[in-house]
Amino acid sequence: MKMIKYLIIAILLFSLCYTAAAAPVKLIFDTDMGNDVDDLMALCMIHNLQKRGACELLAVTITKDHPQAAAFVDAVNTLYGYPDTPIGVVRNGAANEAGRFNLLADKKNPDGTLRYPHDLKSGADAPEATGLIRKILAQQPDGSVTIAQVGFFTNLDRLLKSKPDAVSSLNGRDLIAEKVKLLSIMAGAFQTVSWDTRHLEYNVKLDIPAAQNLANNWPAPIVWSGYEIGVAAAFPHVVIEQDLDYIEHHPLKEAYILFVPPPHDRPTWDPTAVLYAVMADRGYFDLSPVGTVTVENDAATLFRPARKGKKGLHRFLVMSPEQTTRVREAIVQLSVEPPPLK
Ligand SMILES: [Ca+2]
Ligand SMILES: [Ca+2]
Q: Ligand 1 centroid vs 84 CA: distance in angstroms?
């Protein structure tokens, strides 16, 4: 009898613990990898969060229209032990210059082998991003997918405008409404930036019509990490100099130095959007009230809170000084954690 009692207690305790464990966040990472090194910090973070079961990276989609972007993303995915993560690329997109560090994808060792091994050699061999996102969304449970967009709005604008196809009878807007839980975006500015109350942020500027369509028509909640958030929680460059020597070549160290060498503390724009996407309930950030972001023709982003009793789908991140310290340290530790060491 006593045994049965203990067994029941054990089962109850187990089920309590089991329900307490959060399911991994199903994540699509949409990036302009190669235009700034913060995209790479964000991707390293995602893999380390994935390793511990906090998220599941369903795909990486790329808005930078250069073939080495996809190859470099595959190289990083491979280093972290996820060589088969699906990768989709934009066609006829923005920012088609090479950038400063995606060339690491093709770097060779003295013996002729790749420094960062990977099998996707060029974005030309990757599927188009919109179709890939449609396929992945169609396969996922309703209301389950989080998207972190840390580049331009091109891919998600095209997703929104997409027509029914072989993978789903829903148009883009309806497919998003059914499957997407949250869109966490790094874009825009919602506070004064260096006394400028109309800071025109890069991710919006590169494809303004796409940003306008998304802000006006995306049918699910959006949380915006404005320019000011990443600037406030800038990455301490000493980490690049001292903490990544556990392997001979580290892509984050090499890319950071190629992009803007220490002693520069790079803002953590994209990592903040990923941190919120995966750990939304951990108090790293506070949120504005709900409202609506409007993108103006010059790329300015204006937020208006919803009037009393009205609904709004948009909010933006805010951070106290204490939260800023926590966010910076979380991003540092999550992005420098070693990949599986050989
Ligand atoms: Ca691969
Ligand atoms: Ca970016």
A: 5
Of all helices (H) and strands (E), which one includes residue 146? strand 145-149
Residue-wise pLDDT for 294-335, tens only, equals 999 999 999 999 998 888 999 999 999 999 999 999 999 999
Average pLDDT of the residues in 34-48: 98
Structural domain boundaries of the chain? Answer: 25-336
- What SS3 state is found at 94? strand
Tokens of 295: 């993108």
- For ligand 2, a single-atom ion, the residues with CB < 5 A are 32, 39, 150-151, 270
Helices (H), the chain: 2-20, 38-51, 67-79, 129-139, 154-160, 172-179, 202-205, 208-217, 227-232, 237-242, 251-259, 269-278, 321-336
Going from the Cα of 48 to the center of ligand 2, the distance in angstroms, rounded, reads: 19
CA 220 – ligand 1 centroid, Å: 31
Taking the mean position of all CA atoms in its chain, how far away is CA 178?
A: 21
Give the DSSP H/E element, type plus range, for residue 178: helix 172-179
Centroid of ligand 2 to alpha carbon of 95 (angstroms):
11
Provide mean pLDDT across the span 131-142.
Answer: 98
Q: How far apart are CA 184 and CA 130, in angstroms?
A: 18
205 Cα–ligand 1 center, Å:
31
First to last CA, the chain: 51
CATH 3.90.245.10 fits 25-336, yes or no: yes
CA distance readout (Å), 201 to 89, 96, 265: 23, 19, 19
* CA Rg value for the chain: 21
Q: SS3 of 287, please?
A: strand
Strands 180-186 and 222-225, how do they pair? Answer: parallel
Cα 64 to ligand 2 centre (Å): 9
Residue 72 Cα to ligand 2 midpoint, Å, equals 14
Q: Which of 139, 128, 71 is nearest to 105 (CA)?
A: 71
Q: Is 318 helix (H, G, I), strand (E, B) or coil?
A: strand
- Distance of CA 75 from the midpoint of ligand 1 (Å): 7
